[in-house]
Amino acid sequence: MLRIFLAGMLIVFSSELLPQTPMVITRMTGAINFDGIPDEVVWQSVPALPMVMHKPDFGKEPTETTVAKILYDDEYLYVSGYINFKDPSNIRAVGKKRDYRTGSSDWLGITLDSYYDRKNAFGFYTNPNGVRLDTQFQNDYADPAADVNWSWDTFWDVKTAISNQGWSAEIRIPFSSLRFQTENNSTNMGITVLRSSPGLLMPEMSTFPAIPPDYAGPFYKPSLTAPIVFYGINPDKPLYFAPYLSVGVGQANKVNEAGTGYKMSSTFKYEAGLDLKYSLTNNLTMDFTVNTDFADVEADDQKINLTRYSLYFPEKRDFFLEKADVFDFSFLGGNNMFYSRRIGLYDGYPVRIYGGARMTGRINKWDIGFLDLQTSHFEENPSENFGVFRTKRSVFNQNSYIGGIVTSKLGMNGNYNLGYGFDGVVKVISDDYLTIRWAQTFENDSANKFLDMFPSRFLIEWEHRLQTGFGYDFVYTWSGDQFNPGVGFEAKDNYYGYRGILRYGWLPGNNKPIKYHKTSLTYYDFWNTRSGLHETTFSALEWYFEARKGSTGTATLTLESEDLVKDLPLGNNQANVTPGNYLFMFLTAQYSTSSKHALSSGFKCEAGSFYDGRKLSFSATPKINIGASFSVNLTYNLDYVNFPDRSIQFTNHILGVKGEMTLTTKTSLSAFAQYNTSVNKVYSNVRFRFNPKEGNDLWLVYDEGLNTSLMRETPTLPLTSTRTILLKYTYTFRF
């Protein structure tokens, strides 16, 4: 293995391409009236960026012209655009809510690799209504499902205007909201400018620079941005001081002392706290938090588990989202040495965070992330201190790094969990990447032998990331039976095995109804690390397509073998699978309509054998946009499981309805209700937000849990189990 790694290093040195000459960005010499119309003299003196069609036909002249330009001054990076239309009826202005994201709307924006490290980037996008949509990308967007954070927010502004020639925009991003390094008075970054126009006869995207469709989401990949350079950037280092105040009432129905019924109890809630942010340097930021509050965070989606793996829920809390990529130490599939939802949550219930600190950024050539937080006790769980330190350094080329991580969870009752890890990701040649990760954990009441395999985690992966032509992804992984990342996540523990993916993707050429095809074969085998017994064999043959008009679909045939040594509960214990050896096969079909229309939807159906029975699953996610201000999303999931030889079966339904109304870009109302038959509950979450500017928020939040099937317990359950109404106000002072 070491010989392979060193050989790869030699290939890196011989294959690294010479860097492109960066484009010098014009420093602003005049004034801008920030109104969404870039018609000032200073804009007219800046050359427009040459936009090239990305899809449906890469390399062609765009159907409509885009005049995109970039400027800067001491404090801001400015991006402007005239998004022209021969027929203005093709403009799609859908959504006004902060961070609203839909393919049904026109978009203009940038992907900005502010460190020019070719791995991490920020995204800033807007639509004709002036929506602010910002995001973070990591790991060069290698995994579109895991390497993007759409919930991240920072300080920036945008203005737009609609005319009979199209629409225009001015984006203003403070350099203090970015992270960058300056050397010899120059600052290098990378940029991609994106225009999306779904209302044309064929939905169209154009970019600067020209980016071929050889990757998944190539306009989000930092490694494909165009190099740019600024001279003389020396922004202020502001101090952001953001206190909050929240008041509300919580209610819960509890069994009375006689045990004959339920009685509603009410609790008045009052909280106050603050967050503080200060840029120590242009590329190093310190955050402090006191009595951290997450009352305004949207509720999680309901799920049902029909596998032998733990369910993964994404982080939604703002404090943990900023620069989350710095702390990433992934073993694929959601498995990670650091999983921020371990902090401030216990069995799904919120736990008070007294406070703590976080520092992220870069020191010389090292990316660093440090976090330390203290939580209170909750029920039988003691007060705990959570810590993580992560560092990375680029080596060999801009797409490669080595790094390490240290984690700790210290209970006030004397319990402890410590972990460490080392990793490296190397771009070996062309689009081939080698990843190696090792981690080990230590706990009280354990042997804690250094470099022992049983409390350790190991992964080696060789991947060819290009989406056209022949591709592959080979992984060997090990997770010892004593490996327990106390501040991390493991979907499955105590296993070792390998995975292989072979794929071939091709572009049929212009004017074909299907613009992209991909076939893939996936195979993996897992064994138990302690006993050596076989556990899982999985193989899947899949065909994926993208149509020129925007629809996508997959068809997958899966063969799976499972060896169980103990009962496997399914669907919140609605059924179980007994120990034994099982071989089953199922077919999955998935189709998503084009998002260019007001009504769009996704459908998924899975049917076939399932252990010693059979399973049918169906899901639908229709969405309708009503004008620019109102949208309704529906989600429906059906799971039918039947084991006829054991006379066991169940049917589970999850129904979700989400409505969003935004009268202006500063005011929004969202309502979310979910019904899950596996727990006989309806969960509702209503949130009103007034956001006149970044960092100034008024939230009114209402949550309620409703019981269904009230007669299933004695005494009879009340209709309402819990109810909360909360008012929260945050104001950010800048010094």
What are the salient characteristics of this protein?
mainly beta; 24-stranded antiparallel β-barrel; 10-stranded mixed sheet; disordered N terminus; 735 residues; single chain; Immunoglobulin-like; 46 strands
What does this structure look like?
This protein has 735 residues and is an all-beta fold. It has a domain at 2-231: Immunoglobulin-like. It is 3% helix and 54% strand. It is built from 3 helices and 46 strands. A hairpin with a 6-residue loop joins strand 13 (186-197) and strand 14. The longest helix has 14 residues, at 2-15. The N and C termini lie far apart (53 Å).
Instruction: Report, as a whole number of angstroms, the end-to-end distance.
Output: 53 Å
Which class of secondary structure composition applies to the elements? mainly beta
- Which CATH class of the domain at 2-231? Mainly Beta
Low-confidence stretches: 1-19
Estimated radius of gyration: 26 Å
Biggest sheet, open or closed, and with what strands and sense? Answer: 24 strands, antiparallel, barrel
> What's the architecture of the domain at 2-231 in CATH terms?
Sandwich
Query: What share of residues is helical?
Result: under 10%
**Count of DSSP-assigned helices:** 3
